[in-house]
Structure formats: structure tokens, C-alpha cells
């Protein structure tokens, strides 16, 4: 232990398995589990649920010329306030991340502004320098667009095949936006669901299965239906990510042309939403696909509105409300928001055991009503308005308090690089 480091103790924590003990944190790690000694700061946790903090492996932090939607400061404050200490930024920025230089510039911008740890994914386009981005520190590749979306053009089958092959040779992880999209008039949530159908999602997954060579590491982003999950699992094609909006919202409960609920892949019917929950045990990761667009940008006719829903701050709170109401376990939340994303991405996991990364979120045992005015995102709205959430009181990052009683505190966020990173001498 570095003796000059601050020592923080989480007192009387209920550890999974039933033991109640103190967790001592110093030098960014858990230094001891059991009765604690001298501490600079003590948090009494007997009335709280203490979880390893989340990794949200799918966020769009925007910034640059899209800073009116979100920037690194507002987006990472939003993450912390939702119990997330690592965000993985998607490369469909303007300009897109296609070279090592652009990726490093993005990381340096984040280093100046971010309040939580972050990683940056490499863009997968026909002209992208995949190897250069791996060496520059890309965490993963994609979301790789098998179907078009906001700020992302679809790759052809041949281009997808070639990219997956190159990424495999770089020992990289391909993250996929799996949709086959039909042409047609897209003026309601129902037509959006039809044009970007369940069958299209399944078809995209099947194409990936056909073109991925053995040994490719594939992760499917925001899978929206039970049938696709069954296909991926039965054929063992890749890991599965599901968003809170597909679990908690359906277009049946929205006004037919509500642009705020327009997202890719689309919200499905209530029937499909319930079927998605039946697959809960097969889902590897819950990630938000935090895609902030402003109220003004959403206030246009449906067919012109950008797709995307903000959600990094409400993701774990919505899940913790399910824990509170006895529908899922806290172990489920830890696995799907922290341990599994860490394993899939190769990030050191946060956890209770000595030596582990000391990132924790302390949740009260009460639900509150989700209100946009209380959220940090610049988007300024949430589709979960009025729904129940359990928000953390305190968030610890690398053993330091990074969020407490609704205030974000600047600590020392780090850029977490992917396994292909080669430092420049
Ligand atoms: O709805 C979406 N919005 N889906 C995506 O895949 C991209 C995202 C965005 O960047 O706005």
C-alpha cells in the first residue's frame, strides 16, 4: 500500500453470499476485506446496497460539433450519477473515428473534460485504418453498421466480411449493429418497427454467422427481440447486449408518431418486450446505447427525426428498481453491467475482493421517480419520465469519491486502452 494514499472505508457492506464486512480502499484498489483499521473517510453502508460500479459499453458522448447534444463533461457526469464509472464511446462521431490520429485526438479531448473513466472504439468504415486505431488504443471495433443508423452508413456484405477478417487478425472485438432495413415510408413508431423488423435483425445475425471466420470475437449490440437472442445463443455466434429501452419501453405505450421513442433498432410491441424479459438469463450485457439528441432535434416530423434515446444515467437505476421490487437479483445487475462487460472488453473488473479495481456505487433502499430535470445529460429529456429508479447516493472511482449527494467531483479519470495499444516512444 502507498502510505500517502487516502484510505476510504465502506463500513458494513453486505457482500454477495451474505457476509457483512468493511471494505478498505486505497491506491485505487480494494486493500482489505474484513474489519477495517484507520481511515481518512468512512461511509456507513448498512442502509445501502453497495455494487461494483458499472461499465456502460455502448455510449455516444458526441462533443465536437455535436456538443449541443452532449459533451464529455455532461455525458460522463451523467454516467457517474447513474453508477457508471467506465463508458465506452462509439465512433460514429462527426468526423467519424477512422484513423489512429483521430482516435487519439478524441481521447485527449475526453482526458481534459471527462469525470469518469472512458474507452474509445474504432470506426469500421471502408476507408478506416483498423490497424492504426488498434495501435492507437481502440477498445473494440464498432459499433459496426450492418444496417444504417443515425450517423452510420451500412457496410456491404463483402466489406463486413473483410473488416471482420482484419479485426480477427488484430485480435480485436467486433461490435455489431445488426439490422437489415427495408425501404418504405417511415412515419410512425409502428412503421419504423416494420421497416427495421425482427426478421431483419435475425437476418443480419445470420449474415454475420456466415461470414465470421472461426475465432472471430463478435459482440452484438442492442439486440431487441427474443428470437434473435435464441439464434445467437443456439449457434454460439457472439455475446449479447440489450438496452434498457428495449426492456422497459414498447411502442404500444407511446403516441404513434412520438419522435422521442424513435431509435434503432426500434422499440417493439409490448408482447415482444415481455418476451425479451423471458430471455433475461441469456443476456450477457445491459448497455444503454446512450444516444442523446436534443428536444429541438426531436421536434420535427417523425421521418426527419434522428434516432436515439439518452440512457446512461437511468440504466442501472431502472435495473435497481427491479431489484428493489424483487424481480431480478443484485447479482444479475453486477454481472450484466460490470463483470461481463469487463470480461468481454478485457477491462480489469471492479469488485469486493482485495486487489480489485475500487469502483463502487452505493444505492439507497428506496425508489425515486425519474425526472429529466434531475439528470445531467444535455439532452434534457428522458423517455422514463415518472418511472421508478434507484439512483446512487455516492459513487467511488479508483478509491476516491467521484459523486456524492448529487454532486460530481473531479478525480483522475483515465483512458482505458484496448489490448492492441502500443505506446509511442
Ligand atoms: O438509435 C440509434 N442512435 N441507434 C444507433 O445505432 C446510433 C444512435 C446514434 O448515434 O444516435
Automatic annotation (TrEMBL):
- Identify a single GO molecular function assigned to this protein: metal ion binding
Q: Give every Amidohydrolase-related domain span.
A: 49-363
Q: Which PROSITE patterns match?
A: DIHYDROOROTASE_2
Q: What's any GO biological process attached to this entry?
A: purine nucleobase catabolic process
Hydrolase as a keyword of this entry, yes or no, is yes
Annotated keywords:
Hydrolase, Metal-binding
Q: Could you tell me which Pfam families the record lists for this protein?
A: Amidohydro_1
Superkingdom of origin organism: Archaea
GO CC annotation terms, alphabetical: cytoplasm
Cofactor(s) required, per the database record: Zn(2+)
Reply yes or no: does the keyword Cytoplasm apply.
Answer: no
Q: Which PANTHER family does the record match to this protein? A: ALLANTOINASE
Name listed for the protein in its UniProt record: Dihydroorotase
Amino acid at each position: 500500500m502507498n502510505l500517502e494514499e487516502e484510505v476510504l472505508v465502506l463500513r458494513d457492506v453486505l457482500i454477495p453470499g451474505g457476509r457483512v464486512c468493511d471494505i478498505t480502499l486505497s491506491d485505487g484498489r480494494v486493500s482489505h476485506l474484513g474489519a477495517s483499521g484507520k481511515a481518512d473517510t468512512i461511509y456507513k453502508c448498512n442502509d445501502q446496497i453497495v455494487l461494483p460500479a458499472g461499465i456502460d459499453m455502448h455510449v455516444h458522448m458526441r462533443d465536437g460539433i455535436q456538443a449541443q447534444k452532449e459533451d464529455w463533461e455532461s455525458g460522463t457526469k451523467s454516467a457517474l450519477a447513474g453508477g457508471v464509472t467506465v463508458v465506452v464511446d462509439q465512433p460514429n462521431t462527426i468526423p467519424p473515428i477512422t484513423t489512429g490520429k483521430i482516435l487519439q485526438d478524441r481521447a485527449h479531448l475526453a482526458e481534459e473534460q471527462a469525470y469518469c473513466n472512458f474507452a474509445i472504439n474504432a470506426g469500421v468504415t471502408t476507408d478506416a485504418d483498423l490497424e492504426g486505431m488498434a495501435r492507437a488504443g481502440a477498445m473494440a471495433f464498432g459499433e459496426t453498421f450492418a444496417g444504417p443508423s443515425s450517423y452510420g452508413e451500412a457496410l456491404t456484405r463483402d466489406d463486413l466480411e473483410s473488416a471482420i477478417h482484419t479485426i480477427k487478425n488484430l485480435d480485436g472485438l467486433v461490435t455489431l449493429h445488426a439490422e437489415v432495413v427495408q425501404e418504405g415510408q417511415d412515419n410512425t413508431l409502428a412503421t419504423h418497427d416494420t421497416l427495421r423488423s425482427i426478421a431483419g435483425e435475425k437476418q443480419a445475425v445470420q449474415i454475420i454467422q456466415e461470414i465470421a471466420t472461426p475465432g472471430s470475437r463478435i459482440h452484438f449490440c442492442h439486440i431487441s427481440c427474443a428470437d434473435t437472442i435464441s439464434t445467437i445463443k443456439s449457434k454460439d455466434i457472439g455475446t449479447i447486449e440489450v438496452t434498457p429501452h428495449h426492456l422497459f419501453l414498447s411502442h404500444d405505450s407511446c403516441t404513434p408518431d412520438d419522435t422521442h421513442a424513435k431509435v434503432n433498432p426500434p422499440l417493439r410491441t409490448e408482447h415482444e418486450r415481455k418476451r425479451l424479459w423471458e430471455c433475461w438469463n441469456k443476456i450477457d450485457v445491459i448497455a444503454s446505447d446512450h444516444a442523446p439528441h436534443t428536444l429541438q432535434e426531436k421536434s420535427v416530423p417523425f421521418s426527419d427525426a434522428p434516432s436515439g434515446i439518452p440512457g446512461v444515467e437511468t440504466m442501472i437505476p431502472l435495473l435497481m428498481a427491479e431489484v428493489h421490487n424483487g424481480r431480478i437479483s443484485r447479482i444479475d445487475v453486477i454481472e450484466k453491467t460490470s463483470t461481463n462487460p469487463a470480461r468481454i472488453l478485457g477491462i480489469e473488473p471492479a469488485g469486493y475482493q482485495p486487489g480489485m479495481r475500487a469502483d463502487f456505487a452505493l444505492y439507497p433502499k428506496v425508489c425515486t421517480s425519474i425526472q429529466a430535470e434531475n439528470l445531467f445529460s444535455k439532452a434534457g429529456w428522458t423517455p422514463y419520465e415518472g418511472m421508478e429508479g434507484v439512483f446512487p447516493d455516492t459513487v467511488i472511482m479508483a478509491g476516491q469519491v467521484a459523486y456524492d449527494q448529487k454532486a460530481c467531483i473531479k478525480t483522475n479519470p483515465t483512458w482505458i486502452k484496448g489490448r492492441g495499444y502500443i505506446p509511442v516512444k
